[in-house]
Amino acid sequence: MNFLAEINVMPLKEILDPQGKAVTGSMKNLGLTEISNVRIGKHITLEVDAPNEEVARQKVEEACKKLLANLIMESYDFEIKALV
User: Fold this and answer.
1) I need a labelling partner for 39 at 20 to 30 A (CA). Which of 19, 23, 48, 52 fits?
2) Are the beta carbons of 1 and 79 closer than 8 angstroms?
3) How many whole angstroms separate alpha carbon 42 and alpha carbon 76?
């Protein structure tokens, strides 16, 4: 079976996010003062060939921990759905 994983990787809340800070400042300059505390991360999609959803989840978890996220500075979450 093929599964689609959608992964979000974000800087930890305790870590300074210079890109987010710059965008927050730009929002104010554009008159969008209602927008604050912007955080910028990564959105990753990938396909997994696995016999079932549990194995697909394990593979995505392993990919996140070993390559896609720097666990010292980032957190991640993901969703998986079967491709038809």
Assistant:
1) 48
2) no
3) 9
Amino acid residing at 53 = E
pLDDT at residue number 81: 98
By the 8 A CB rule, do 74 and 4 touch? no
The rounded distance, in Å, linking the Cα atoms of 12 and 42 is 13
- Which amino acid is residue 77, in one-letter code? D
Close Cβ partners of 84 (under 8 Å, ≥ 6 residues apart): none
Long-range contacts of 69-72 (CB under 8 A, 24+ apart): 69/9
pTM, to two decimals:
0.89
Q: What is the pLDDT of residues 26-41, one digit of tens each?
A: 999 999 999 999 999 9
Amino acid at 35: I
